[in-house]
Amino acid sequence: MLLRRIKFAIKLFEKLFGKYKIQIVALAFLGFLGGLMESASISLLIPVFSMALGKDPLDIGTLSQVVKNFFAFLIYLRPQFFTHFIRNTLGNINYDMVWLLALIPLLFFAKSALMVWFSYIGTSIGTKFEFETRSRLYRKALLAHWPYLLKQKIGHLENTLMYDIRMSAKLMGGMISFILDISSLFVYIIVAVSISYQITLITLSVGIVIFVVAQFFMQRTRHYVKRQTVFNKDIAHHINEHISGIKTIKAAGVERKVALVGGNFFQYLRDFTIRQSLLKHIISSLSSPLSILFIVIVFAISYKSPDFNLTIFIATIYIIQRIFIHINTAQKSLHDMNDFGPHFVSVGDLETNVDKNLESDSGEKGFVFKDRLEFRDVKFSYPGKEPVLDGISFAVKKGELVGVVGSSGSGKTTLVDLFMRFFYPQSGEIILDGVNINEIKLAQWRKNIGYMPQDTFLLNDTISNNIRFYDDSLSEEDIKRSAEIANAVKFIEKLSSGFETIIGEHGVLLSGGQKQRIALARTLARKPHILILDEATSSLDNESEALIQEAIENLKGQTTVIVIAHRVSTIMNADRLIALEGGKIKETGTPEELLKKKDSYFYRVNLL
Ligand SMILES: Nc1ncnc2c1ncn2[C@@H]1O[C@H](COP(=O)(O)OP(=O)(O)O)[C@@H](O)[C@H]1O
Ligand SMILES: [Mg+2]
Q1: Is the CB of 151 under 6 A from ligand 1?
Q2: Which of 3, 40, 110, 202 has its Cβ near the most Cβ atoms within 10 Å?
Q3: 473: pLDDT confidence band, cut at 50, 70 and 90?
């Protein structure tokens, strides 16, 4: 169980942090160096104190030995240099009080400088991780295939990209400071052992006990943290969902009820945060009284013993304090890592999922449409469901205007989704001039198909940018012309800033018909070879619908158009109609032919 978790953690670390390995190792080295400097200056206290007490400098502890040797080396160098300046400078150096006292703060300053560097590198890789991971996952999420995206909840992706990734960066920060603590601890322990191994041994045993007890508390907070990540996602979902439906909510007069439901979420979140923070603080605040208690006990036991030495005792105490502090901060870093772990896992999960659900492009061929498009015995069902489309076969000639009618739920949108390659048929083929459309490069395919869904998607931006829609190859002229074909220019020119008018969130400043015409202009601006409208006008008033119908009528002969409609009036100008029912094609013919047949499905619907 534990082993599996460790394995999982290592894999995740490798996946998300692997790129920053070198920097992390560099940090560990800097941390080690910093610890070395600090402990060196502390060990210098021993000879300083002994000098102050008028005794021979005591050279207990490896580091003060090293310093002493370093001084000896400098003194040895003195006659080797002939430069007057250097000789003079070196000439003053001696292993004495003044120089030792100067060296102690100097080492501390050097250590601080090192730590600034350390935190700079730390922040730099933390922010780099955040930036790179966010960009990568956003791109991958956008490139995922439709069946996966369809299942995503509003707000979850945003939460993961913004919040979970930030928390994962903090986890990396925790990891880095853990490295710092461990490397400093390592140095301190060596120094402490070289001064007094008994005291060090006891200190370490006590430290380990504290550590283990703290770990136990930490396990308990893990549970809260996990629930918290889930909650954060739920909250993001709740807010996003309800704000996007605010008009309906207001109309129904349920704002307060919604606020109450939201409030409950926030309350839960607060409870978790309190419990978690309490546990955390119990652990961290215990450490300093414990270390004092420990020092008192060591003093009480040892001060009467004949080889008790105050200098050594003071230096040891300082180092013990440092050891405790580092155990404590290591503990905290571990705790942080624990807190941020679930966010980290959630980022990892997202990446695994988007990687698994990348939209595949099997196609190699270019898009060529000269003659006909054909559905051949196409069968499709949603996972675990009855077939929605069952043996659909029909052909569309280039330049034709074909209407597809059928009642709600008859499979019209599914048909379009298959055509757009959002889904793939379980059997049968869609063929363009003898080529299975799956063999055509996906980007090519979609570029040449103009698709208009029922609900328009507009950006809170200018009309011009909504028509351009990230296609930089379009000129101002293209945009104007497509707006003209879409019957949109008249109303656009009446707006205060014409094409540069900002249309508000989802185009709230426009009417349904106007929005739809801008969407049509966007689609047409790309000069599609095939245009497909999925009930694009079904929610419009007659006048708006007539304007769009007229626009489509004008495309006749140049662009192949498939119009899906619920209302028969929309497609009376089609060259040919296809009536879909229960996943099968019920009848086909010209509108006139079908209207003549008194028992036709089409006739029945038209009269209703
Ligand atoms: N993503 C989906 N998962 C499962 N079933 C779906 C999904 N989308 C649509 N359906 C079902 O497929 C059938 C056809 O839906 P659809 O193609 O949207 O019909 P239409 O556009 O003609 O109203 C309906 O019964 C609908 O419930
Ligand atoms: Mg539909």
Answers
A1: no
A2: 40
A3: very high
